[in-house]
Specification:
It contains nine helices and 15 strands. It is of the alpha/beta class. The protein has two domains: 4-144, Rossmann fold (3-Layer(aba) Sandwich), CATH 3.40.50; 147-280, Rossmann fold, CATH 3.40.50. Strands 3-2-1-4-5-6-7 form a seven-stranded mixed sheet, sandwiched between helices. Helix 1 packs across helix 9 and helix 5 (147-155) packs across helix 6.
């Protein structure tokens, strides 16, 4: 009999079931009722006592609602066990890891305080935006990388002379790791983002990508602005096909469609956030991180 029990929050029930199966653990479902005023009520039945309770809940849009659901589930689970592990495949607010402009709140540190206050023993996340964000949580935490899993999927596509591309300098380390897994090389573009308007420009003027298949790699895609700008630039440099690989596919405001219209052949993401592009399953690597 497994020492674990897995509770699936409403945003990640499919993934939570897979993790429970791999742990050979019991699975507890949650049901959510949303009232006309936007408030929601969560019901969790039959939580076993004296087990290590694993709560699985991504906090993608609606971010605040999914975050509150996560905190509520952990608070209830704490009545049955002192060992609560929060598996948050996609952690919202991870990009708010520093004070970029004067007066900005470092919200990811606030999230950490809330998780701690409801009784979370440990947090496990997937490809968090930065090491700083993990540190700012201020709670025992672990980041699981699924770069190799994404790379293994790309290998099956049998690309021509593949080159890994990071849309910005911040993703250089990730692109290098991805390139190593594919046994190829990588480049990182230079971009500028206006912190007030959000407007993005590619500063790089030339890239040697002619006749090569490219894999644009990022940790997450939200509006797709960086990916679209990078694709347009690379297409002008006479590359072959452009593929996009990311861990977290948020795809807000029709981003998936816009990215494909920019000339991307295929988008590959994981099931940290369920979408049409979720081709890579992260349940095995998450289950292993709990053992």
């Amino acid at each position: 009999m497994s020492k674990y029990v897995v509770i699936g929050g409403n945003s990640s029930q499919g993934l939570a079931r897979k993790i429970a199966k791999k742990l050979k653990a019991g699975y507890v479902n949650t049901s959510t009722r949303t009232f006309p005023d936007g408030e929601s009520k969560i019901t969790i039945k039959k939580i076993p006592k004296k087990k290590i309770i694993v709560v699985v809940q991504s906090t993608f849009p609606p971010v605040d609602s999914n975050l509150l659901h996560l905190l509520s589930i952990i608070s209830q689970a704490r009545k049955y066990s002192s060992k609560i592990y929060a598996v948050i495949p996609y952690l919202g607010y991870a990009r708010q890891d520093r004070e970029f402009l004067d007066g900005e709140v470092v919200t990811v540190s606030v999230i950490g305080k809330m998780l701690k206050s409801v009784g979370t023993k440990k947090v496990i996340v997937v490809d968090i935006h930065s090491k700083l964000a993990l540190k700012q949580l201020g709670i025992s935490s672990e980041n699981v990388s699924v770069v190799s899993n994404l790379a293994n999927y790309i290998k099956k596509l049998k690309l021509k002379d593949p080159l890994v591309v990071s849309p910005d300098q911040g993703g250089k380390e990730r692109a290098g790791e991805f390139a190593d897994a594919l046994k190829t090389d990588f480049i990182a573009l230079k971009k500028h983002r206006d912190r007030k308007t959000g407007k993005i420009n590619i500063i790089t003027t030339k890239a040697s990508v002619k006749d090569r298949d490219l894999i644009l790699v990022d940790d997450m895609i939200s509006t797709g602005g960086s990916i679209i700008k990078a694709t347009q630039f690379l297409k002008k440099q006479k590359c072959r096909r452009v593929y996009v690989a990311c861990t977290h596919g948020l795809f807000v405001n029709g981003a998936e469609k816009k990215i494909k219209q920019a000339g991307v052949t295929q988008i590959i993401s994981t099931n940290t956030i369920p979408s049409n592009s979720s081709k890579v399953d992260v349940s095995k690597i998450l289950a292993e991180s709990l053992l």
